[in-house]
Design a protein that fits this description.
The chain is globular and about 100 Å long. The strands form 7 sheets. Strands 23-25-24-26-27 form a 5-stranded mixed sheet, with helices on one face. Residues 1-29, 148-171, 298-309, 433-447 and 614-618 have low confidence and may be disordered. It contains 24 helices and 27 strands. Helices cover 44% and strands 21% of the residues. Strand 12 (181-189) and strand 13 (192-199) form a beta hairpin. It folds into 6 domains: 1-30; 34-149, Sandwich (Immunoglobulin-like), CATH 2.60.40; 177-310, Thiol:disulfide interchange protein DsbD, N-terminal domain (Immunoglobulin-like); 322-515, no CATH class; 543-610, no CATH class; 619-741, Glutaredoxin (3-Layer(aba) Sandwich), CATH 3.40.30.10.
């Protein structure tokens, strides 16, 4: 008993000591009270939205999933908060979590406010200190006054009080402009400036009121610069605006007529407000900067020089801001024509051709063209719809359609289409359903237009989900301005441009297709094999590489047998039969090579024998990327590169991204590219899963999806003028790398 009491006393003493240490830590100021660690405020930014703001002390963070807000007033309802992207942290209690540091602003839509002038909300949140101590969940009730409440109250005394309150007579003095908005310009090199505004807490800066210019600087001018997207806000004076909190920073290209070192005078104009409701007049700051010798001069034509300091993406965004409507639409139609020759569009060719061939002997050139038109229009409208949704709501619908069950279902459709072309059955809508759709005698033909349009829409969402520069530019423009009409029209014209080759192929298929007989059956069988190839190509995104390599081998060998690859030809065989036998032999040979490569552990169908000693070279090894799975990992790698004075290349990749794999097997495998990248820290963000961490990595740099390649200088600054969106041929990519090395 004495031993037991002694042991219990020891435990009690230890617990008492731990409690005392905790109290001492709090008393010594090592752990802030919750209200100081996480300062919460709320205000209405319109009649249909409130803004929750946390000022988070250094060394503390908030959990995203522990933040909730609900109305405690029966007449008012709150919608789901619109959380910004946070940092991914491995928490020993909760696993992988998303957290916020420094500051957090969360817009919360208000529903059913009606005539309510004031209401109460209950906000719950939880956070921790970096020292390893977590607070219990905090609950705070806040009073919210909607805009116009005082004016509509009908109480003149109250209105007078609010007017005096708006003058801030009873609050602390405002900061001087130079303290509220500290302008910090820097010379990166002879052709680039970096401008930053350090914005004090409780203040914000308007995006549209920010502008730069040069004065008394002959022989030099500013190139087109792109101000990043800000936070959407409803302003009583200016309506819907974008504002910046904490910091605004971006690069500015310089266009110089001579390379000699010289000085320039930079003028920055900007305007901002304090959150308490007081705005500063427009401000102007003039600074003299000393430029080193330039690495390039603007001796080219004016139109070329004006955009030489911008990436392709930035040029597209600027054109949307500045060009006329018709010029913008024509430009995007041209972009679509160029994109029609990229790997993302190639799979649509056999899909549309297979649909036309599947119509059988009655197909005409006119009908083939109309089917192609239905396919292209549906595809263009789908691009427009998902583009506007992605820009306004921040959700990439194409990436969402890369779920395994969607891929399997769509691949199954192609297998069914292939079997119908082999003659196993005939696909058509049920008669009762056909009767409900149309009343003409050609009901099943009319129904095929609907089916073709549906296939075009699904193809746009599932078959080619990669992002190209024109698409990304239009989406960023919509997100920045909210101008869904212009952005949507641009995307529609781009979709039409992408579909032009499909219209030509569809019309020619109707003209060249044999009308009946054995030739038609043979043609349908060929397209049946192509449909199976499309199914295997899509399954590559979700199946192991060894399994897809086996499927490719089977798809080559079995049709080769039907093409008489191993059968002797009769002496009087026709030229066409000899041709098909030759094709069959080629397919059989390559299929066998795939099986040999598979047995050797290879997984690339394009290079099945890469592991053989006679084919292996030092240049065959792929680029050695280091994977980053979160923003925190990315920041750690950038810090490591800064310590080593390295440039960083960050590649955004996904298994379902066609052009990502084309770049992997093309430009990234080129020996000269590897030499140019020697000394770079090569990072890769795999966003295949489209998880919250993946979306945070994309949102951090205003990206819609892969492929995208970003470059960071040794100071950890992303050089936006070098950003690449979409596919690039090896020579173009090499020229881009040489430009960086200048």
């Amino acid at each position: 008993m004495d031993r037991f009491m002694s042991f219990r006393q020891i435990i009690f003493a230890c617990l008492t000591a731990l409690f005392s240490l905790s109290v001492m830590a709090v008393d010594n100021g090592e752990l802030l009270p919750p209200g100081e660690a996480f300062k919460l405020s709320a205000k209405a930014v319109g009649d249909d939205e409130i803004l929750l703001t946390w000022q988070i002390a250094d060394g503390y963070y908030l959990y995203r999933k522990k933040i909730t807000a609900r109305s405690v007033s029966p007449s008012v309802e709150l919608a789901a908060p619109d959380f910004p992207g946070g940092l991914i942290k491995h928490d020993k209690y909760f696993g992988e979590v998303e957290i916020y540091r420094n500051s957090l602003r969360v817009p919360v839509p208000v529903k059913n406010a009606g005539s309510a002038q004031k209401f109460k909300i209950l906000v719950t949140y939880q956070g921790c200190a970096d020292m390893g101590i977590c607070y219990p969940p905090q609950k705070t009730t806040l009073d919210i006054a909607l805009h116009g409440a005082a004016a509509s109250s009908g109480n003149p005394v109250r209105q007078l009080f609010e007017s005096f309150k708006g003058l801030n007579l009873f609050e602390d003095d405002l900061l001087p402009p130079d303290q509220a908005y500290r302008f910090v310009p820097a010379v990166v090199d002879g052709n680039t400036l970096r401008v930053s505004w350090q914005i004090a807490k409780g203040y914000y800066l308007y995006r549209k009121k920010t502008a730069l210019s040069l004065q008394d600087s002959p022989g030099i001018r500013l190139g087109r610069y792109v101000i990043p997207a800000g936070m959407p806000m409803h302003d009583e004076a200016f309506g819907k605006v974008q504002v910046f909190y904490d910091e605004l920073s971006f690069s500015v290209p310089l266009l110089r007529n001579n390379a000699a070192a010289q000085s320039i005078t930079l003028v920055a104009k900007y305007q901002g407000c304090a959150e308490r409701g007081v705005c500063y007049p427009p401000m102007s700051k003039t600074v003299v900067l000393h430029l080193p010798p330039a690495t390039r001069t603007a001796t080219a034509a004016p139109t070329q020089a004006a955009t030489s300091g911008l990436s392709e993406l930035d040029q597209i965004i600027q054109s949307l801001h500045q060009d006329t409507l018709w010029l913008t639409l024509v430009s995007f139609f041209g972009f679509g024509l160029l994109l029609s020759f990229t790997p993302c569009i190639f799979p649509m060719i056999p899909i549309l051709s297979g649909i036309i061939v599947g119509q059988g002997r009655d197909i005409s050139t006119r009908r083939a063209f109309l089917l192609s038109l239905c396919y292209v229009l549906a595809s263009a409208l789908t691009y427009t719809g998902f583009g506007i949704a992605a820009a306004l709501f921040g959700s990439n619908l194409q990436a969402a359609f890369q779920q395994p069950w969607v891929i399997v279902l769509f691949s199954g459709i192609f297998v069914l289409l292939a079997l119908s072309m082999f003659g196993f059955y005939s696909l058509e809508l049920p008669k009762t359903f056909q009767a409900r759709i149309h009343n003409s005698s050609e009901r099943h033909h009319d129904g095929s237009f609907y089916g073709t349009a549906l296939m075009g829409a699904l193809s746009a969402l599932i078959v080619g989900p990669c992002v190209a520069a024109p698409l990304a530019g239009a989406l960023i423009y919509i997100g920045q301005t909210g101008d869904a009409l212009l952005g949507g029209l641009a995307l529609f014209m781009m979709g039409l441009g992408m579909g032009m080759p499909l219209l030509l192929i569809g019309a020619s298929a109707g003209k060249l297709l044999p009308k009946a007989g054995l030739w038609l059956n043979s043609t349908k069988a060929v397209f049946g094999v192509i449909m199976l190839a499309v199914a295997v190509w899509m399954l590559e995104r979700i199946l192991p590489e060894s399994v897809t390599m086996l499927l490719w081998a089977v798809l080559l060998i079995i049709p080769a047998i039907y093409l008489s690859a191993i059968d002797p030809l009769p002496a009087d065989a026709s030229g066409w039969r000899k041709l098909w036998k030759g094709v069959g032999l080629m397919m059989l040979t390559y299929g066998v090579l795939l099986l040999i490569g598979l047995s050797m552990g290879q997984s690339n169908p394009l290079q099945p024998l890469r592991g053989l000693p006679l084919s292996a070279t030092a240049s065959d090894s792929p680029l050695a990327f280091q994977r980053v799975a979160s923003l925190q990992e990315l920041q750690e790698k950038l810090q490591q590169a800064q310590q080593n004075r390295q440039w960083v290349m960050l590649d955004y990749y996904a298994d379902w991204c066609i052009t990502c794999k084309e770049m992997e097997n093309g430009a990234f495998a080129d020996p000269e590219v590897k030499r140019q990248l020697d000394g770079f820290l090569l990072l890769q963000a795999d966003v295949t899963e489209n998880s919250p961490a993946d979306m945070a990595l994309l949102r951090q740099f205003s990206l819609i999806g892969p492929p995208a390649i970003l470059f960071f200088d040794p100071n950890r600054q992303e050089r936006a003028e070098f950003r690449i969106i979409g596919y690039q041929e090896t020579e173009d990519f090499l020229a881009h790398l040489r430009r960086i090395s200048l």
